[in-house]
Amino acid sequence: MPSATTTKSAMAGVKRKSAPVKEGKVKERKKLKTESKSKSESKFENKAKSKAKPVKKVETSEDSDELDSDDDGGVPLTAFEDNEDVEEESEEEDIPKVADGLHPDRAKAVSTNSQSSKEAHAKQKQLAQERKAAKPLADQLARTKKIWERLRRKSHVPKDERKALVTELFEIITGRIKDFVLKHDSVRVVQTAIKYANPEQKKMIAKELAGTYRQLAESRYAKFLIGKLLVQGDDEIRDTIVPEFFGHVRRLIKHPEASWILDDVYRGVATKQQKAIILREWYGAEFVLFQKGKSEKVTGDLSEILAEEPGKRAPIMRSLQELINHLIQKKMTGFTLLHDAMLQYFLNAKPGTEEITEYLEIIKGDEEGDLLKNLAFTKSGSRVVCLAFAYGTAKDRKQILKTYKDTKDLIQAMATDASAHVVLLTAYEVIDDTVLTSKSIFPELLSKDADTQTKTVVSFANDLHARTILLYLFQGRSKALFPPSLSSDLEILAEVDTVRTATSKKDPEVRRKELAKALSPYLLKAIESAASELVAWSFGAQFVTEVMFGAEGDKSAALQAIAETATGDPTVQLEATEAVEDAPPASHIGSSQFGGRLLKSLIAGGRFDSKTKSIIPVVPALDFADIVYPNIKDYIIEWATGPNSFVVLSLVESGNFSKKDEVLKTLKSEKKKLQKAASEETAEQKVKREEDEKIAKDTGKKSKFVREIGNKGSKLLLEKL
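Structure for Probable PUF6 Member of the PUF protein family, as requested:
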């Protein structure tokens, strides 16, 4: 009886023996068998094998509302058009042959399946073309796409051709704009039309779209069209678009697409009155209904609203908190509108109640810390963080500070930002644990790398906002550190002072001294390493002066580095400094006013008190006169007769200068030069005189201002002699 194996072999058929072949030919035959598999089993491979002409690659870009872009971005329109350049597929298909090792019947079946797949694909393609042609405005849409493809690359289109294309484009879309704006490819056509439109054409587009802006704002692609209209349009277009959002703010701010365009409108183009109407809707549905049809001016300040209707305080605060909490939970924390609303809640919450405590928990509840990070970089948001610092407990403050510390380079970015820098100043003022403050802020602010610290200090010393972070602990709230442009910082800090009396225990002066002591080594080392770069700029010179007066520790190396910057002839121009990019050619420290003030102040040894009209010396004394004199000794006459003659006068008047007699003797030997400088018109006086003469000539009136002639410092030195 035959075995099961034998039976199985008989059913399958006996394999015929073949002639022996070389190993290479066997591998080749196996390869052919692999390549000859059915196209019906892999339609994607069949498509790839079809012979077609190469299609030219079209540049793509994302949706953007940037004004200077050569195109409006997005998916290339060629991705949605039929490729007309594809040749007919080759009649000679890779049909499996009997020689490939397949049975003749099997080869025939594979060939039939391949033909069926090809016919099905062609039929699908034909149906797609028919559906596309049956759509409304199919021909017009196809033509506008061609125009867009040409216009999107501005530099490649001659001016005359571009003008003709724009004219044709407007002929097609005028009266049909609503049919174009809700499709991702055709909306770019309208954006291009806005880009090249004249004011009247832009107004035409805006009026034709009136009544649809809320719907457009909710569209993933059409929202950028609103941005282009607002940025490139005028007040009339703005007043057409913005009111369409009124009454829908609470819903739109929650929408994933509309929320961004609503916030852009609020932050960038809305008028003060429009902002107030938008913000009021956060206070409850009552304010949505109440505003409809109202023309008189309204306020978005919640304190004024509550003063008029105190009985509505509870529902208003509840409505405001619910909407704020909803956006925070949805991680939609980057909106300026949200930050303004949060500030309104904080300013009207009752101190010492659950309102403040619960609100702080909401702010801290964002585990990733995105809320606090976003808040810091807006005007209202930074004020919210400052109030959170002021009202919070020691644990709250530590958690807030940790959020900023744990993100790389974030504290450096905050220091240079117009809004965020005041958050760091508030941290100085309210956190009692100065060790925590210094370890959390200073290494992150100035970099942990010693080589990078010097560059950072030089950069920050010349930055309007970052310099306040470095000098605040030495200068306090002086007018020199806080010019009128930073007056809002002083207002926030005054607000924090009022709150911290109940939440902070340490004496403010003790806190300031402890932080200044921790910061001093960083700054003294930077001055020692880069004194020449710092003194080349007005802000840098002021920075050096204040640090030398207020820092604690060994200052000898830094003072010596400063003194060496005065070496050489003060009348010779030096090479450009590399401290700041695009720096103008630097001059010797002796020829700049701020350089002279720096040396004069350090020689005097302290700040000038306007009340007592005297110098208040620092302790311990700097003794800078003896340090700087060897560096200016060889050019003492040039200093005495130059624009900074007061530096030499300070040497002579210094009480602890050991070489005073030597200086006076040198001056006496060159008395004639001093007399000449004291009597002749200086270069600066000449410029001012010529300006007065020009004004008098233009106006016909002579200047009544009498200018003093001669070097005043040289005159005073003559009196000393």
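Residues 1-100, 574-585 have pLDDT under 50 and may be disordered.
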